[in-house]
Write a structure and sequence with these properties.
Elements: H1 15-35, E1 88-90, H2 101-116, E2 129-131, H3 149-167, H4 172-176, E3 181-189, E4 195-201, H5 207-218, E5 227-228, E6 231-232, E7 234-245
């Protein structure tokens, strides 16, 4: 089949127009390319830093004047080390004759006032109560009656010590609170040989120890009363009881 050309279509009719448009576009692009300014390339450089593990710094050197040498100190005093075991120590109680000077003076004054003016012999007066230190015949524990008179006081002391050790009981609360001290117990031995506690005195805060000391003396057995010129009299005595933890 033969193709027929359209007489109304002329391909060269607008060619000059297209050529001019293209030439204008090329010139415009060329102008823009020439006039367009670009920034200078920035060259970046990297430094290789070697870390040697430490930074070198300036070290300030301080110089001090030579120190004055002082004389050596004196040797320390020796320290005494005491090893304390957790046990109760019952210190042996020594019974001492306690002079009751005030009471003796009062008795002597009373004797002189009562009998001196009448001309009666002062030695004939026998008070109802005497201190342990001046009594002629000391009170006796059971079993001490057969001892010679020179041994009777020592026998009394030995029996008193045995009695305290036998009946001694350290209060638990006082032991926990570490309460220690010496307690003085003043007691009276009656004409019937019975013992009555008159006063108990210990260090401050030792009420528990005072109570225990009173209990020990109140448990004394019936004693043979003391005598003055073969007459039974009351005898006042003081016994110390030491409470010690060590």
């Amino acid at each position: 089949m033969e193709l027929k050309k359209n007489p109304n279509v002329d391909p060269k009719r607008n060619s000059m127009l297209y050529f001019q448009v293209g030439l204008a576009a090329v010139l415009l692009l060329t102008y823009v390319g020439i006039e367009l300014k670009s920034e200078d390339p920035i060259v970046q450089t990297e430094e290789l830093v070697l870390d040697s593990g430490f930074v070198e710094q300036d070290v300030a050197i301080m110089t001090m004047p030579p120190a004055q040498r002082l004389p050596p100190p004196p040797p320390p005093a020796p320290v005494e080390i005491k090893i304390v075991e957790n046990k109760v120590v019952i210190k042996e109680t020594k019974i001492e004759k306690v002079e009751d000077n005030q009471q003796t003076e009062q008795k002597e004054t009373k004797t002189a006032d009562s009998y001196g003016d009448e001309g009666a012999a002062v030695d004939d007066y026998i008070p109802d109560e005497l201190p342990f230190s001046v009594i002629e015949q000391v009170p006796l524990f059971p079993g001490c009656e057969n001892e010679p008179k020179s041994r009777q006081f020592d026998c009394f002391q030995e029996q008193m010590t045995k009695h305290i050790k036998k009946n001694f009981n350290y209060p638990d609360r006082a032991m926990e609170d570490n309460i220690q001290g010496r307690v003085q117990v003043e007691y009276l031995i009656g004409v019937d040989g019975k013992v009555s506690v008159q006063r108990v005195k210990g260090p401050k805060g030792s009420e528990l120890l005072e109570k225990e000391a009173r209990r020990i003396i109140e448990k004394l057995p019936l004693l043979k009363p003391g005598k003055q010129r073969n007459k039974p009299v009351k005898v006042r005595h003081v016994v110390p009881i030491t409470f010690k933890l060590g």
